[in-house]
Write a sequence for this structure.
């Protein structure tokens, strides 16, 4: 009977890692390219160069002012305080409509996950009003609420409510039955079940709805101000764009549009990305 030879064991001593982190051993260009803000800044710089080249090629300031002219108009508007004042007027109205829309959307979805009547109500209302553009309701809003901020707030609530309600309700439906049963075993019912079980589990969908609602509300406000104009003797950012278009200050029109874009980027990067990083990404609910 033959015996199987025993393989001799070897011990390989690994060299300790150097104290320099691995990312610092990469070339400088690769280390810089890993920063998302730098990549986005490079994209914006390329777009600015293309804009300047196209403006110089067309050579018509009335139709397309150059990037440098727009930047100068933007700087003048900021230093004079005109642009910050317009932005403040628009943001106050926007926040009022946005908050009211969030409250109504949460009330509708809470009712929908609690009762059959609430589900039928939410399904019927979203089918009726979600395809309806918010700006189409502005003539009715002016008839009902008159010349004032209330008309703008009405169309803003419409633009936020249905998108947020649909996303939130879809997130609630995606919550596993195990979590629901665990909440019921702890005696959670109705609003307490929604707050302690459904909202944390459906947070990615809720944040997506908040982002979509914000985008809808922001562009609806600018469009409404372009049509509606000033209220109570004050005009917002959309009115600033409209007024300068009538006066053929195209560089100021582009400066106002740039402010609209910058505010959108700031809210997306500073508010919603921070919320996602502190919640759903930190908790492993989203990559």
């Amino acid at each position: 009977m033959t015996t199987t030879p025993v393989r001799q064991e070897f011990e390989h001593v690994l060299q300790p890692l150097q104290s320099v982190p691995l990312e610092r051993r990469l070339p400088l260009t690769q280390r810089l390219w890993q920063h998302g803000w730098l990549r986005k800044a490079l994209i914006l710089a390329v777009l600015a160069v293309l804009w300047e080249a196209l403006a110089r090629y067309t050579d018509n300031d009335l139709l397309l002012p150059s990037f440098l002219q727009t930047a100068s108009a933007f700087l003048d508007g900021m230093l004079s305080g005109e642009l910050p004042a317009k932005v403040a007027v628009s943001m106050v109205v926007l926040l009022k409509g946005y908050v009211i829309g969030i409250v109504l959307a949460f009330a509708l979805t809470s009712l929908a996950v609690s009762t059959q009547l609430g589900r039928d109500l939410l399904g019927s209302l979203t089918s009726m009003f979600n395809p309806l553009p918010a700006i189409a309701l502005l003539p009715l809003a002016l008839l009902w609420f008159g010349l004032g901020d209330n008309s703008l707030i009405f169309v803003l609530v419409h633009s936020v409510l249905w998108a947020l309600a649909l996303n939130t309700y879809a997130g609630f439906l995606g919550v596993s039955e195990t979590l629901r049963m665990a909440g019921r075993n702890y005696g959670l019912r109705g609003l307490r079940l929604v707050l302690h079980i459904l909202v944390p589990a459906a947070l990615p969908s809720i944040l997506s709805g908040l982002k979509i609602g914000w985008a809808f509300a922001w562009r609806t406000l600018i469009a409404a101000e372009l049509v509606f104009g000033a209220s109570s003797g004050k005009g917002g950012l959309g009115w600033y764009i409209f007024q300068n278009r009538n006066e053929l200050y195209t560089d100021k029109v582009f400066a106002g549009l740039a402010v609209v874009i910058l505010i959108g980027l700031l809210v997306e990067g500073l508010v919603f990305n921070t919320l996602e990083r502190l919640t759903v990404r930190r908790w492993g609910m989203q990559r």
User: Anything to note?
Assistant: Residues 65-278 form a domain with the MetI-like fold fold (CATH 1.10.3720.10). The chain has twelve helices and no strands. The two ends are 59 Å apart (CA to CA). Residues 82-114 form the longest helix (33 residues).
